[in-house]
Design goal:
Layout: E1 7-11, H1 16-27, E2 31-36, H2 39-51, E3 55-60, H3 66-80, E4 85-88, H4 103-131, E5 134-139, H5 152-172, E6 177-184, H6 190-196, H7 199-210, H8 221-232, E7 243-246
The structure holds nicotinamide-adenine-dinucleotide.
């Protein structure tokens, strides 16, 4: 078991990549705090973990509230005594040109995708330091490394989280706290469907995107969960400050289209 006796917090764990990662961490022995605003999905994640004899509890909370983050971290330590792993995965996308984006929309995207990581790391690091180290994993995107059409607030948040990751890897290295950033490509989750649209139009969008993916397939949340497991476990003990891209090869080339 790669995470035996480890205590892990996973945000956005009610759905998609977060749920798959919470399950993967628990099957490797971690006790998992499932954090999300979605009650039904969060409870479902915990039930799935318990059905496999794992341990989890659901904390329904908004990751953008410092008061709630502080309370959740305090309760985790009161319950399980320590924190070894923090996966800042909760995120949202906004598909809208910059001129049509309201100030409130901009702030909302940046709050969930960027500020939430600042808050969680701020409150978790003292406990990791006391415990002798830890692993923090932030969630970027292929949009952490290249631009993307029609999603300026999202891309700004994902670019920023990549450099926040590198900076904190420097700040916390001597505390043996590793900080990395997982950058998913096209992954089949509710967020992807929201980004690319539903129905036949959504399917056409996905096919068009996949024509640019060398591996030619849409990734599963479990594919990302395996990469997350690697980055929070001792398998990656020498790795900190990286953006780990899992995208089926999408950003390997400036131009690539299997129809050519
Ligand atoms: P998802 O929509 O399936 O899951 C996101 C979860 O975050 C949801 O359960 C949602 O309730 C939760 N969440 C949103 N706002 C919250 C808040 N304020 N407080 C607490 N929880 C909140 O999406 P996903 O595709 O699994 O995305 C996970 C991460 O992966 C995101 O950061 C996303 O940007 C990133 N990502 C996804 C893709 C993709 O193709 N799916 C690509 C690149 C990056």
């Amino acid at each position: 078991m790669k995470l035996r006796a480890k205590i892990a917090i996973v945000t956005g764990a009610a759905s998609g990549i977060g749920q798959a990662s919470a399950l993967a961490f628990a099957s490797e022995g971690a006790k998992v705090v499932v954090v999300d605003v979605d009650k039904r999905g969060g409870e479902e994640t915990c039930e799935k973990i318990r059905a496999r004899d794992g341990e989890a509890f659901f904390d329904r909370m908004d990751v953008t509230s410092e008061a709630e983050v502080s309370r959740m971290v305090g309760e985790t330590v009161a319950r399980w005594g320590r924190i070894d792993i923090l996966f800042n995965n909760a995120g949202i996308v906004l598909v809208k040109p910059l001129e049509e984006t309201t100030e409130a929309e901009w702030d909302h995207v940046l709050s969930i995708n960027l500020k939430a990581a600042f808050l969680a790391i701020k409150h978790v690091v003292p406990h990791m330091r006391r415990g002798g180290g830890g692993a923090i994993l932030n969630t970027g995107s292929i949009a952490s490394t290249v631009g993307q059409l029609n999603t300026p607030a999202y891309v700004a948040s994902k670019g920023a989280i990549a450099l926040l990751t590198k900076s904190l890897a420097l700040d916390y290295g001597r505390d043996q706290i590793r900080v990395n950033c997982l950058c998913p490509g096209i992954t089949d989750t509710p967020m992807l469907r929201e980004h690319l649209g539903g129905g036949p139009e959504g399917e056409a969008n996905i096919r068009r995107r996949l024509s640019r993916v060398p591996l030619g397939k849409i990734l599963k949340p479990e594919d990302l969960a395996q990469a997350a497991l690697y980055l929070v476990s001792d398998d990656s003990v020498g790795i900190t400050g990286i953006t780990h891209v899992v995208d089926g090869g999408l950003i390997a080339a400036a131009e690539y289209d299997v129809r050519i």
